[in-house]
Design brief:
This protein has 697 residues and is an alpha+beta fold. Helices cover 45% and strands 21% of the residues. The chain folds into four domains: 117 residues, Beta-Lactamase; 166 residues, 2-Layer Sandwich (Beta-Lactamase), CATH 3.30.450.40; 150 residues, Histidine kinase-like ATPase, C-terminal domain (Heat Shock Protein 90, 2-Layer Sandwich); 126 residues, 3-Layer(aba) Sandwich (Rossmann fold). The chain contains 22 helices and 23 strands. The N and C termini lie far apart (108 Å).
Length: 697
Amino acid sequence: MSQTAHGASIATLTLGQREEQLRLAIDAAEVGLWDVDVATNALYWPARVKAMFGISPDATATLDDFVACLHPQDAEHVLRAYADCQDPALRTVYDVEYRTIGKEDGVLRWVAAKGRGLFNDQGECVRAIGTAIDITARKQSEAAAERGRRRLELLNRIEHATRPLNSAQDVMEVTTRLLGEHLEATRCAYADVEPDNNRFTIRADWSPNAPSSVGVYSLELFGSLATSNLRMGRHLVVDDVDRDLGDEGGARMFNAIGIKAIVCAGLVKRGLLVAMMAVHQAEPRQWNAEDLEIITEVVDRCWAHIERVRDAAALRLQDRRKDEFLATLAHELRNPIAPMLYAIALMKREKDPARLLSRTEVIERQTSHLVRLVDDLLDVSRISRGVVELKREVLDISTLLVQAVEAAQPGVNAARHSLKLSLPEVPAPVLADPSRIVQIVTNLLNNAVKYTPDGGELSLSCKVDASRLVIEVSDNGLGIPAPDQSRLFDLFTQLPHTGAKAHGGLGIGLSIVKSLVEMHGGAVEVRSAGLHQGSTFRVSLPLEAVSMEPSAPSREQEVHTHRGRVLVVEDNPDGRSTLVELLSAQGHQVFGAGDGPGALEAARSMHPEVVLLDLGLPAMDGFEIAERLRSDAGIPQPRIVALTGWGSDRDRQRTAASGFDAHVTKPVSPDDLLMIVDRWLEHARGGAGAFDSGSDA
């Protein structure tokens, strides 16, 4: 159809058809029409417009209904615009957006209205006509967008303000201030919830006028229902404490601090309430969804940022302690090495046998000290990896305490201390690893010796308290300041006040004590009245409710010396020659080899019964040597023992899988090594002696 023909067809529409066409357009646009007879104030509202004012379609609507349904905050400017469009002097276009409150349903809606006045020849306004559109959805969308913008603006401000901070306290203070100012609140506070989930600590409290509320409080202050809800992550929201809570529900408490409305947003992580953000208002306040959304997100982000800051601080502290530990380790290793070097130099010059013996004793003492340092380091590594295995048996605690005293006695005597020992009057059985219990008590005694001025008084006591044993090591030494007592058992901790008395340690002994005690199901704590007031370390262990059985004779008592053929494979010349000499002095036929080819050649000629084999050898390592020893038909099968500085579980698993019969970690005491070689020889000859493939002297 041509444009001319189309225009002609429109022109031929009747008035009724055009009105129907207009009605369809209005319906499609969801536009409502309105018409007012100014002289009579008669109002024409179709059903669509009535709906915008909460009036049912069949109800009569008047101009008074229009005025009454206007939102109080919008009524003035709407009525002024309506009057101006009817003013002959102004004749403005009526163009307004306003809120209505439904007459029958009380629902708040937004309306966009447009219209104008119709004037007669005398210039009088006789009618006002126009349109109305429900824009509630648009306004809600705009409001949501504005809330989102304001929320993001606040979160960005908090992010930019807290990003450079490295103190958790500073993060809390900045966050509470910015949130409080944003909400125009009376007070805003951040609290950490203690691990017991019963108490919370307010750590930051922003308020322009109210006094600080920083401190520790019970969650029960909120009442049992609110406390339960908070623990499940449900917020406490109170618009008016007097109306919503009443005196018994907490209103009295809030009124006492001048609070009439409150939001307490709890943050639950991994099933536990970990933090809370509280916002207070001195007057009743209708908290809206935007307020709650912002508070919820701020507490979540604040907690996450605080955790990052705390983790970073912990890493810095750990790094500092690592540096301090390495410096201390270097110092502690140099201390015994220096007299050993001096003693060796003197031994080369002196021929007097008496002096030679004293030099040897110096080397022996300092070597023992080095071994203790290495043992402590190995214990820390094993404990941290969770690979320490307790060899438990039922023993009388008194026997173990006496052994601990014997181990610590040289240090006690050297410092001229007096040591009082008080044992239980009746047998006190414990199910424990005897060597570890002796280690625990010896460490505590050595600690008391170290930090007590010479000539001090020490005591070791043990008593039965109900179903537990309580062991106490006390001294009248330097004491411990209260702030330091909580970190005393942390790894690598050495307290600054100990000064020159902090000799001979790496700051790991008490950490080992705590770990070993807890592995036995016990607990350890320290008490001290402060500097120069002495200290008491208290160890509590479960008492074993069984009768004591006589101890089986030790294997050492059953072992007899066996002379045999031993091959030592070690690439360190000094280590190899001294070990060959030690075994030869015991009567064994010994040959040493420094590498794989030499070891295989020696094995073919001497047919060793036991091979002590280092792992880290040049060219051909210990694993390859062991494999060739096993596969060489010309070599009778010996017992192959890894004698190595590698002692992890993974190392042990690898040696076991490679055909080794045992794994022994260096350093091992000479007496222990000689005893173990005797056992291996007995086993190699088919004796009845037990053979432990996992031995570690």
